[in-house]
Amino acid sequence: MKNVYLDHAATSPIHPEVMQEMIPYLTEHFGNPSSIHQYGRRARKVLDDARQTVASSIGASRNDIIFTSGGTESDNMAILGAASALKEKGKHVITTQVEHHAVLHTFHELEKRGFDVTYLPVDQYGRISIEQLKNELREDTILVSIMYGNNETGTLQDIQTIGSVLDERDIFFHTDAVQAFGLIPIQVDELKIDLLSASGHKINSPKGTGFLYVRESVPFLPQGFGGEQERKRRAGTENVAGIAALNKAVTISQAERKDRYDQYVNYRNRMKQIWDEQGISYVQNGSAEFFLPHILNVSFTEVSTEVMLVNLDLAGIAASSGSACTAGSVEPSHVLTAMFGTDERTKSSVRFSFGLGNTIEDIEYAATETAKIVKRLTK
Ligand SMILES: Cc1ncc(COP(=O)(O)O)c(C=O)c1O
Question: Start and end of every Aminotransferase class V domain (predicted)?
């Protein structure tokens, strides 16, 4: 039996060159970047180089990059850091109903701290309405957090328009770009993004790596206390080997971005083509126009998510029900519920996500096996 990993949106394998890059910093070059001796200076250079790479990849200034442990920490830090610094100015914040829990649960925490939170609904494709966003803005709105691309459906939001609407009104804009970074070209100045979260393990860097971009003009309070690392914004000795790895992973993903994009579009089209040829019934969840290429979410309406995932696993195919946090649970996803209410398709959705190591043969195998399973279970 073939094993095919199609869950790259949950986490991705480490690129071999990334692995090579980090090893010296786990062995001989183990210094602390805050030390003044040669060991420390060597480690410090790793941070400087990586900061430059990461900043360039989104058109930002080096000083505006904070290395973190990943997407969750970046989201928490962005939202709590900005909201707590701005609370004298206003207590109204806005997000969407389809954010990752790293964002949604942070907004629940803000509610507990006395903030007024608006959760924007989405249409059946998973997009917010710009008109509705405009209507919800108030005198006391201080921060808006809207994800770049959804981790379950791949739907992209209109970040360009959102950025300019908020910029005109001087409201700070955070975007969770954990799934988009590395596949979509992002320039923070053009898009008027003030804070941006990204995660290393989605782009072939190890788990425990990531960054947060915070524009210099954003009032921001640290959320952890200790040393003066990361310009006093994130205390704690830096993950030097992880940051060396992140540098390499960002470099590779930027160089290969266009090729990867085209490859994944080809994969998703091929999967759907095989299902169409096999005549099985399925519906695609998400936008056919504004999407992340590596995420394909479909409902095989007559087969429940759990049954489908177990059968796929038996056939060697690793897929998911959506976000890693909700995988394995019987609760329909909050993202699909926001899009479809209680519709049957929320109970039969499967997310296939593509990445490093996948070949067209893998995709054809997975699509053919999926069709066989659907036919067997709906006979
Ligand atoms: C959109 C989005 N935000 C945040 C996260 C959390 O990132 P991490 O796993 O690096 O903490 C994820 C992970 O699945 C994600 O997909």
Answer: 4-365
